[in-house]
Amino acid sequence: MKNIVAVRLHLDAANEENGALRVIPGSHHSGILTQNQIEQIKNNLVRSPVRLMQGISCL
Question: What pLDDT does residue 13 have?
Fold first, then answer.
């Protein structure tokens, strides 16, 4: 998993109503998280969806 790059290409605009990308800020510094760790972070997280316009890619 150390050499993986994910690309998300939006064919339609993305917002909270139709499936905007949700991220855990700073989680890339924590290494691979267990499902339990993810759930604990999600429960204490302020929601900040990534809104993207049609045709925009997100790396």
Answer: 77
